[in-house]
Design brief:
286 residues, D-amino Acid Aminotransferase, Chain A, domain 2, 2 domains, six-stranded antiparallel sheet, 8 helices, globular, Class-IV_PLP-Dep_Aminotrnsfr, BCAT-like_C
Length: 286
């Protein structure tokens, strides 16, 4: 079955999905996006994702393209047409089509594009062995808390990681502290057993999976601290892992050339991964 996309009110074959050449998302990266996990046929954290979409639109002063109930209806219809059991739904809203000029156009209508695709979950062995990350300078703008489509620094960082044979790149600010990965949030477990992740401010995207893991960590009575940490502290950590809607909780077993812990996934990361999958099967589903 061919994939189906949603473009500005129409369900169309994915191969034919297109927007106008003067859409401001294409011209200026003047738009935002969200990615929602679909796990065993149901969306996970749908409402928090839509809340963050509304926040991002508000920060860029882009009107919502439709009401919340209508948007949720389109999401479900797209999943039905694509027969997604485990996968992702991607939605993007731009300021719309207008003559190319930097100021906001007066009468442009927001553009909404939505796609869905299947994903394969990693095997148990892949999770146990973990992944490698490299460290790179954070060269992004100062509003990383907005989930915009302006992802060129992230793209360059992810490509640098790929060329280095790594899964992800952790971005480091001018003060030497890790902000986040190019598409994930970063976590460590210290030698003293503290679970550490950077506090959410304008320097990072406050991941929806990150927020869920904060709740789950409290339920597990973990010693949670939201603060910055350096690459050197991370290399000395007992455990490290990344989180996102697509990676869930993925253990990090190597940072640059330093092996983390015993080089295998740690108990805290694996425990949070299990807790997250249980959440995705239960209270997180809509």
């Amino acid at each position: 079955m061919s994939r189906i996309a949603y473009v500005n009110g129409r369900y169309v074959p994915h191969a034919d999905a297109a927007v106008h050449v003067e859409d401001r998302g294409y011209q200026f990266a003047d738009g935002v996006y969200e990615v929602v996990l679909v796990y065993n046929g149901r969306m996970v954290d749908e409402i928090p994702h839509l809340d963050r979409l509304d926040r991002s639109l508000g920060e860029l002063r882009i009107p919502s393209p439709m009401s919340r109930p209508a948007l949720r209806s389109v999401m479900r219809e797209l999943l039905r047409r694509n027969r997604i059991h485990t996968g992702l739904i991607y939605m993007q809203v731009t300021r719309g089509v207008a003559r190319r000029d930097h100021p906001f156009p007066k009468n442009a209508q927001p553009s909404l594009v939505m796609t869905a695709k299947r994903i394969a979950l990693p095997t148990g062995a892949a999770v146990e062995n973990g992944v490698r990350v490299i460290s790179i300078p954070d060269i992004r703008w100062e509003r990383c808390d907005i989930k915009t489509v302006a992802l060129l620094p992230n793209v360059l960082g992810k490509q640098q990681a790929k060329e280095a044979g790594a899964y992800e790149a952790w971005q480091v600010d001018r003060d030497g502290y890790v902000t986040e990965g190019t598409s994930t949030n970063a976590w460590i477990v210290t030698k003293d057993g503290e679970l550490v992740t950077r506090n959410a401010n304008q320097a990072i995207l406050n991941g929806i999976t990150r927020l869920t893991l904060l709740k789950l960590a409290e339920r597990e009575n973990l010693r949670l601290v939201e603060r910055g940490f350096t690459i050197e502290e991370a290399k000395r950590a007992r455990e490290a892992f990344i989180s996102s809607a697509t990676s869930f909780v993925t253990p990090v077993t190597q940072i640059d050339d330093a092996v983390i812990g015993n080089g295998k996934a740690g108990s805290v990361g694996l425990g949070l991964r299990r807790a997250y999958l249980d959440y995705a099967e239960g209270e997180g589903r809509t």
